[in-house]
TrEMBL record:
It comes from the Eukaryota. This is NADP-dependent oxidoreductase domain-containing protein. One of its GO terms (molecular function) is oxidoreductase activity. Gene3D superfamilies: NADP-dependent oxidoreductase domain. The active site is at Y52. Residues 20-301 form the NADP-dependent oxidoreductase domain.
Length: 325
């Protein structure tokens, strides 16, 4: 098992492990095995979402490791998210309860608003997740994410969730939310990797005491996403000779160098993997530090190119990627 992963203090005083396991597209037996392996290897932060359709598997794996005595419930930080079709306040609580039931846990550590855009509600099955019009664009709702957030705040009072946050929000959306909220989001989960290092949004969040979680930290190598496809995905840093050379210096892989870079930017990366060797590598990044020159090399990959552009929803009034950050 890897050494203990450090944690960061959230703005509500709770602790969140600096590195977690992403689970998007990890389903069925693969998902269960990946989470079990990750927990055995020292991961104490697991990220899922209702949209991923694998909360059952994540919960099953966590409960199994609790039953084995490997962890106690309070040792593992479980994150899930409310999907875009459930932004109406009356749906937020129902969506949360469905996630809680899927996970089979007494509480969820962190519940996120997955995207600022609300879409038309059509039902609770996977077939209802992506309402599209004849032009291939999302069928939007007019729900304001501020109203969604009020429903999130009410969830906190139930004690069934410990912290609430957002995902894919830009600086203007966060500013607007911070001006009206009773409870500040503890985190903003955003795409962050060498191709889009998000330095400006990270700094904005830091000023407001909001932790940044980095999804797709390795740029989705070799992944075909049924939602966003693979066209236009920017070239990642994993095959670059300069990154490989940095890794060789420290006895690390290029992926470990990238994850270390993201930690040094101040983010909490959540790499997804189902392979034991990769799961083991991804957590083994806390015994070296990059030099200033090496950070500059990594900064040089930043083009702003996204692996998750979500362009089919770019006509929504709350589409977040119209701003630089």
């Amino acid at each position: 098992m890897a050494p203990n992963v450090p944690s960061v203090r959230l703005n509500n005083g709770l602790q969140m492990p600096v590195l977690g396991l992403g689970t998007y597209l990890a389903t069925e037996e693969e998902g269960i095995a990946a989470v079990k392996t990750a927990i055995d290897e020292g991961y104490r932060h697991i990220d899922t979402a209702y949209f991923y359709q694998n909360e059952n598997q994540v919960g099953q794996a966590v409960r199994a490791k609790i039953a084995e005595g490997v962890i106690k419930r309070e040792d593992v930080f479980v994150v899930t998210k409310v999907w875009n079709t459930y932004h109406a306040p009356e749906h937020v609580e129902q969506a949360f309860q469905r996630s809680l039931d899927n996970l089979g846990l007494d509480y969820i550590d962190l519940y996120l608003v997955h995207w600022p855009m609300g879409w038309k509600f059509a039902g609770w099955t996977a077939d209802d997740f992506m309402p599209m019009n004849a032009n291939g664009k999302s069928v939007d709702s007019d729900v304001d994410y501020l109203d969604t957030w009020k429903a999130m705040e009410r969830l906190l009072k139930t004690g069934k969730v410990k912290s609430i946050g957002v995902s894919n929000f830009n600086s203007e959306q966060l500013t607007r939310l911070l001006a009206s909220c009773e409870v500040k989001p503890v985190t903003n989960q955003i795409e962050c990797n060498p191709s889009i290092n998000q330095r400006k949004l990270i700094e904005f969040c830091r000023k407001h005491d909001i932790v940044v979680t980095a999804y797709s930290p390795l740029g989705r190598p070799n992944m075909t996403d049924p939602v966003v496809g693979t066209e236009g995905i920017p070239k990642h840093a994993l095959d670059d000779p300069r990154v490989l050379a940095i890794g060789k210096k420290y006895g690390k892989s290029a992926g470990q160098v990238v994850l270390r870079y993201l930690v040094e930017l101040g983010t909490l990366p959540i790499p997804k993997s189902s392979r034991l060797e990769r799961i083991r590598q991804n957590i083994d990044i806390f015994d070296f530090k990059l030099t200033d020159e090496e950070i500059k090399v990594m900064d040089g990959f930043n083009t702003g190119g996204r692996t998750v552009p979500f362009e089919f929803s770019n006509e929504h009034k709350y589409f977040p990627f119209t701003l630089e950050y």
